[in-house]
Amino acid sequence: MELCDRVAALAEELQRSNLDAVFFGTGAELRYLTGIHTGICERFKGVFVLSDARMFGITPPIYYEEFRAQLPQECPLYIWEDATWFYPVVRDLLRTYRLEGKRLGINGDVLGVDALEMQREAPLELVSARGILDFLRVRKSPEEVSLLRKALEITEKALEAALERVVPGITEGELRRFLLGYFEEAGAEGPSFDPNVSRGTHTATPHYFGTSGVVKPGDVLRFDIGCRYKGYCADLGRTFVVGSPEEEAREIYRVVRQAQEAAQEAVKPGVSAHKVDKAAREVIEKAGFGNYFNHRLGHGLGMAIHEAPDVKPGNAETLEEGMVFTVEPSILLPGRFCVHLENTVAVTSGGCEVLNAREPEPELPSL
Question: For residues 334 and 346, what is the distance between their CA atoms, to the nearest angstrom?
Fold first, then answer.
């Protein structure tokens, strides 16, 4: 879908939502809509889209080239200077485009302080526009699926190469740095999120980003990693053991893998996201570990690492062909260890296609 088509569809969505305009800060939604991709910084920048399909951008000079290269030439682009910050320019623009007193949607990438300061410059009714593009982004095109598959391919190969380096005495940080270097050398933009490489009790911290842990014989070793390729994110979770595993870890691994398989079998168009989550959760509960599966089963994946749909209890949203999301059950024993397995799947007309090339082993793999 071309930019003009996306903007036209968005304008219709704004009218349905009774919004006069929406402001996109820089992030995944703006990149999806326009192609604009800039680094994170404190400077105010983004694009306004009005309900009549007009649009204009605003940026400090240091990001002018990135904005101008992606926006159509007929799209106005306004610059603010450090000496006055963005306040006077925004004040004039809100007046020029007759947005004073109107309903302005704010997307999820706009800093809260920036939204408040815009409202200070002109009377505005600020409205959350979180997920305003979900109606376009939630169903992936074949081209998008291909990019997601490529990101997963790089991630899986990076993991395979890292596993060859696992020996007692290697640190979490050494493995983490190897993965980041592999991503770059393989043509990825970088990691899609801060990678989790954890050993032993560290695996029981769901979002662990330490680097000092030293791998020891008998350790459970967890990887939750992904790269970003041409804007699209991979997310892969695997669990191993260094040396011979204890029977408890073997049993828990089997349960988690069975839960993942049950969820994937439940995926098909027309099924609710809740039902897919339930399929995995029932397996874990039946095995007696229900209290140790304390998160949603999965999340959408695309230009953002977390996007629609949420595969979780209570979400009645029905799956549609083209949706892509993770299936990642886990059992986490606090203070001890965690087994976490994560695949990425696409909803097809016939059910479910796993996009990563290799599924987890049926038994806990030993390194």
Answer: 32
Q: 3-state class of 105 per DSSP?
A: strand
Write out the two tokens for 292: 């140790």
Closest CA to 155 of 315, 355, 17: 355
Block residue for tokens 């309900």? 51
Indicate whether 215 pLDDT > 90.
Answer: yes
Q: Which fold has domain 138-354?
A: Creatine Amidinohydrolase (3.90.230)
- Domain locations in the chain as residue ranges: 3-136, 138-354
Tell me how crowded residue 42 is: count the other CB atoms within 10 A of its CB.
7
Q: What span, in angstroms and rounded, lies between the C-alpha atoms of 49 and 14?
A: 9
Whole-angstrom distance, CA of residue 308 vs CA of residue 136: 11
d(C-alpha 109, C-alpha 322), whole Å: 25
| Separation CA 224–CA 44 (nearest Å) | 32
Burial annotation 288-307 (CB, 10 A radius, 16+ → b, else e):
ebeebbeebbbbbbbbbbbb
Q: Is the four-CA dihedral 155, 157, 158, 160 of positive or negative sign?
A: positive
CATH number of the domain located at residue range(s) 3-136 in this protein: 3.40.350.10
Please tell me whether residue 56 adopts helix, strand or coil conformation. strand
Peptide bond connecting 195 to the previous residue in cis, omega within 30 degrees of 0: no
pLDDT band at 237 (very low <50, low <70, confident <90, very high): very high
CA dist 166 and 367 (Å) reads 7
What tokens appear for 362 in the block? 């049926």
User: What is the spatial distance between Cα 209 and Cα 220, in angstroms, rounded to a whole number?
Assistant: 16
Q: Please state whether beta strands 190-191 and 227-229 pair in parallel, antiparallel, or not at all (unpaired).
A: antiparallel
Claim: this prediction has a pTM higher than 0.70:
yes
